[in-house]
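Input/output pair, single chain:
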Amino acid sequence: MQEAGQTRLSLFAFAEPSMAIACPPTHVHTAEHSLAEVRASYTEMPGLCLTLHQARRLFGLDDSTTTRILHALVASGFLSVTRTGMYVRADVR
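Output:
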């Protein structure tokens, strides 16, 4: 159990340990949860095509978190980035 005021580190799946982010213990969504939510949305809607800004707004995340999640999904081979900066499923492109 964590004491009040402590933060815990949360790692993205498929990401480097250096990409860890600190989340307050009371934060409802962990980085893993957010990454899973983004992955699930692209899985449920294979034609989903979003810019970084659109993804940030759709998933309700800050710029840094959105960037890390999208980059982790690109690095894992799940997403790819088009020449126009759109994030799309790599197997659908």
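Helices lie at 31-44, 52-59, 63-75. The domain at 8-23+30-89 is CATH 1.10.10 (Arc Repressor Mutant, subunit A).
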